[in-house]
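Here is one chain, start to finish.
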Amino acid sequence: MKKGWVLVAAWAAAGALAPVRAEEGAGKPDLAKAQQIVSTVCAACHGADGNSVSPANPSLAGQHAEYIS
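Its structure:
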């Protein structure tokens, strides 16, 4: 029973802090860092240009921002 309350408290704390974390990242995006992440992480499965050659990995080229984020 005690474990359940700890989980509830943890979820409540995470929910309360979520808006604070969102505001910290607000501002101008770091495009150089984003490009580095895409070329080292995303390209491995989704292709360098966003067009995957494997049916197991969806193509990201041409997708809207909500799909990708």
